[in-house]
Amino acid sequence: MATSDHDTTTLADSYTETTRILMPNHTNNLGRALGGTVLHWMDITGAIAARRFAREQVVTASMDHVDFRGPIDLGDVVAVTAYVFDTGDTSMDVLVTVHAERPAENERHEAAASLFTFVALDADEHPTSVPDLACPTDDQTALREEALDRRRALAAAP
Q1: Under a CB-based contact definition with an 8 Å cutoff, are residues 140 and 95 in contact?
Q2: Buried b (16+ CB within 10 A) or exposed e, 30-42
Q3: Going by DSSP bridges, is the β-strand pair 57-68/107-121 parallel, antiparallel, or unpaired?
Q4: Which residues form the HotDog ACOT-type domain (predicted)?
Q5: Which of 9, 16, 29, 91 has the fewest CB atoms within 10 Å, measured from its CB?
Q6: How far apart are the C-alpha atoms of 11 and 150, rounded to whole Å?
Q7: Is the CB of residue 86 less than 8 Å from the CB of residue 93?
């Protein structure tokens, strides 16, 4: 993870990926991931990204319209990625995506996605300011634009 001063943090500083294998205790009677388990993994990964960005404790303020786009089957590799793509005074917007992978079949598909908002807390558990977001590379700018496009699409949906 790169280091930066407290006034500005890069998107890359927040980028987080967690990976696991979908085991039987996280599946439903069809052998697919429980939605609540996937949401839990998304919340944890998003919180890690927000904490890395703010360098403070964070709490989940909202989760905006979760899309489950495809199944995660028993034995699939589950990759959850998250990064801060926008900030307010004390809040951070985080894009969280979930991919299901079947390495033996060379398959990977997006299984879920959501936009989360986290609020940074100081030592007294009061909201505290967060750094400004910087995207110093084309890759970081492209990731931010992808997240902003998703947010615009959600806002335009009926």
Answers
A1: no
A2: eebbeeebbbebb
A3: antiparallel
A4: 12-124
A5: 29
A6: 17
A7: yes
Q: What pLDDT is recorded for position 6? A: 58
Give the residues across from 73 on adjacent strands. 32
Q: What is the pLDDT of residue 1?
A: 43
Q: What's the CATH code of the domain at 107?
A: 3.10.129.10
Instruction: Classify residue 2: in a domain, yes or no.
Output: no
Burial 123-144 (b: 16+ CB within 10 A, else e): eeeebbebbebebeeeebeebb
CB 98 within 8 A of CB 50: no
pLDDT at residue 111, rounded to an integer: 98
Residue 93 forms part of a structural domain? yes
Model pLDDT, residue 157 = 81
> Any idea what the Cα angle at residue 136 is, between residues 131 and 140, rounded to 5°?
90
Write down the pLDDT at residue 4. Answer: 43
The answer to the question of residue 14 being in a domain is yes
Q: If DSSP codes are grouped into helix, strand and coil, which group holds residue 49?
A: helix
Nearest-angstrom CA–CA distance, 126 and 74: 41
Residue type, 70: G
In angstroms, the CA 114 to CA 109 distance is: 15
